[in-house]
Amino acid sequence: DTEVTQTPKHLVMGMTNKKSLKCEQHMGHRAMYWYKQKAKKPPELMFVYSYEKLSINESVPSRFSPECPNSSLLNLHLHALQPEDSALYLCASSQELMGGRVDTQYFGPGTRLTVL
Amino acid sequence: GENVEQHPSTLSVQEGDSAVIKCTYSDSASNYFPWYKQELGKGPQLIIDIRSNVGEKKDQRIAVTLNKTAKHFSLHITETQPEDSAVYFCAAPGSSASKIIFGSGTRLSIRP
């Protein structure tokens, strides 16, 4: 099973709202990722967690706050977003990050976020 | 850092014909090259990948070839079917094991 699940599928929020995106995997993967994808563009990396610790933040604005409560779950907390943050937010996971070997990343279906 | 270029940006082929998408990369140390298919409203799905110790890999109608000397790799889809219509992304490792860098994508349309 190579399934990564994400909730909600769609989210509409105002610029003053606080919301959270959730991601879950049960493949025993120890690396989890958040990507942002605008229309007709490739996914852009936002954050990487390795063994539940934040290992990469691609200079993402602080209005996006990631959290990894355990090895199966990844959250993205949203606060005071801007309309230009509207996009598809993708979660991915891979086995682990070690020794420079790149492991296959498996993506979830994404959350379509609209900021009004 | 790694740079991945992908061509063409759009491709239309007759059902039953073959489709070829090409990517080039810049870092000669890159050793892993996945291909993802993204259908409308869905996340990218891995369809095939290749590591640098082999030159070709096949999975039914899909194959990937790798030319390490020229630093390019290609996706080949034979006997195309309507369900092959999607956006395809190639990728290569970035500056660390955590990162993969995506190509700009190819929108493949299969004409009936």
Characterization of this structure:
The complex is a heterodimer of chains A (116) and B (112). With 116 residues, chain A is mainly β. In chain A, 0% of the residues lie in helices and 55% in strands. Chain A has no helices and eleven strands. In chain A, strands 2, 4, 5, 6, 9, 10 and 11 form a seven-stranded mixed sheet that branches. A four-stranded antiparallel sheet of chain A has the order 1-3-8-7, with no helix packed on it. The termini of chain A are far apart. The mean pLDDT of chain A is 93. Chain B is mainly β and 112 residues long. Chain B is built from no helices and eleven strands. The chains are: A mainly beta (116), B mainly beta (112). Chains A and B meet through strand 5 and strand 10 of A and strand 4 and strand 5 of B.
Q: How many strand segments of chain B? A: 11
How many beta-strand elements of chain A?
11
Radius of gyration of chain A over alpha carbons?
14 Å
| Largest interface: chains, residues each | A-B, 31 and 23 residues
Question: Quick summary of this structure?
Answer:
Chain A has strands at residues 4-7, 10-13, 18-25, 31-37, 44-50, 53-57, 64-70, 73-79, 87-94, 106-107, 111-115. Chain A has 116 residues and is mostly beta strands. Classes of the chains: A mainly beta (116), B mainly beta (112).
Notable features of this structure?
heterodimer; A: 116 residues; mainly beta; seven-stranded mixed sheet; four-stranded antiparallel sheet; 11 strands; B: 112 residues; six-stranded mixed sheet; five-stranded antiparallel sheet
Q: Could you give the topology of this structure?
A:
The complex is a heterodimer of chains A (116) and B (112).
Chain A: E1 4-7, E2 10-13, E3 18-25, E4 31-37, E5 44-50, E6 53-57, E7 64-70, E8 73-79, E9 87-94, E10 106-107, E11 111-115
Parallel strand pairs in A: 2-11
Antiparallel strand pairs in A: 1-3, 3-8, 4-5, 4-9, 5-6, 7-8, 9-10, 9-11
Chain B: E1 4-7, E2 10-14, E3 19-25, E4 32-38, E5 45-51, E6 56-59, E7 62-67, E8 72-77, E9 86-93, E10 100-102, E11 106-111
